[in-house]
Amino acid sequence: MQNVRTLPVGEDDQGVRVTLDDLAREGARRMIAAALEVEVDEYVGSFVEEVDEDGRRLVVRNGRARERRVTVGSGTVPLRAPRVNDKRVDEESGERKRFSSRILPAYARRSPKVTEVLPILYLHGLSTGDFGPALRDLLGEDASGLSASSIQRLTEVWQAEHAAFRARELRFHRYAYLFVDGVNVAVRLGEDPRLCVLVVIGVREDGCKELLAVEDGYRESADSWSAVFRDLRDRGMSEPKLMTGDGALGAWAALRSVFPATGEQRCWVHKTANVLDALPKRLQPRAKTLLHEMAEAPSRADARKALERFRGEFDAKYPKAVAKLDNDWDALTAFFDFPAEHWRHLRTTNPIESSFATVKLRTRVTKGAGSKKAALAMAYKLLDAAQERWRRFNGHELVTDVLEDVKFKDGIKVTDDETKTTDEKVAA
Fold it and tell me: Where are the domains of the chain?
C-alpha cells in the first residue's frame, strides 16, 4: 500500500489525499520543465546578436511542442518542451541549424536510467510480457513504451547495436592493457541452459577503459578465446602489453597463440578465493592478511617475503594452498614491471566483476533471457551502460610510456643509466 499524506488546501484547510509517488512525479515534472526553460533561454540568449537584414533576430522562442509523456525514475510525467525557431544556415552544408535539447532529446520517451535498467531485469529472468506490469507498479499505470511489444522491439534494437559493435574498427587507438573474464548467463534453452559470455575490456593510450568484445564462448575454452582474440586483431587492435584475467581461463593459451608478446597477470581476487578454499575457515582470516600483503607489497622482493611467511605458516599441513601461489607466482607479480600508479587497476578484473555484480552467479532462474542471441545482446547492453561509470586509470599519462616499451622496476621508471650494461658503463 502506498504511503499517503493529507495536505491542507485553501483557507478552509480542506484536506486532499496525495501519495508520495504523486509528489515525486510532480516535483520531477516541475524540475524538468524548469531545466528545459533555462536550457532554451541560454541557447536563445547566446545568439541574441545574430539578426537578419531587417534587424530581426535569427534565433527566437517559438511556443511549445505538443505534450508527450516521458518516463523517468520517479514515474511518467507530462511535458511540453519549449520550441526554438533557429533561422541560421550552416555555411558548409547550406542546411538550417536546429536546436537539440540535451535534457530531453527529440522523440525521447524514457530517461537513460530507465532504459539502463531494462537489460538488468531481462538478464535476471524477467520475460518481455512481465516488463509492463512490473514497471508500471514502480513508474505508474501510464508508464510509456513499456508494453510487451515495445520491449521486444527494444531487444531487437539492442541486438542490432551489438552486431554493429562487433564489426567496428579498432585501429584508431592503441591498447596497453586488457581485462578478460567469462560470465555465465541463464537462457531458456533445452539441454544447456547457460550462455558463457566472454568479455574483453581494453585500456587506451589516454587511460580510459573501453569495452572491446562481448562474445559467446563454450565454457571459456581456448578455441573460443582464440576466436575472440583473432577477431580483435583482424579488426585492427594492436598487441597489448599486459592482460589480466582469472587463472582458470582458457584465455591464456589463446593469448599465447594470437598475442605471444603480451604479459600475463592473474587476478588477485580470484586467486585469493582459490587459496582460501584450500584452508579451514578458522585459518582464513590470517591467510587473507598475508595474501593482501603479497598483493599490495611495495616491491616484488617484499611480495616474496610475504609468500615465504605464508609458506612457513601453512605449507606443512596445507601444501595445496601454497602450491596455488607457487604455480602462478610469476603471473601474480607481473604488475611490478608496470607503473605503480597502475597497480590497483592491474591486480584484478574488477571492471568486469563490478559491472556484472547484479547478474553474475545469479543465473538460477526459470525464465532466463530467452535465447543466446538475446542474452548476448543484453549482456552487451549492460556493459555498454556501465562504461560511463568506469574510472580512468590513475597515472593515465604513463600509459603512453608503457606503449613505448619504457621499462619499470617495482613501479618506478628505469633510467637510461640503469639500463646500461656494465661494459657500456666502463667504456663511458
Answer: 4-86, 112-163, 170-409
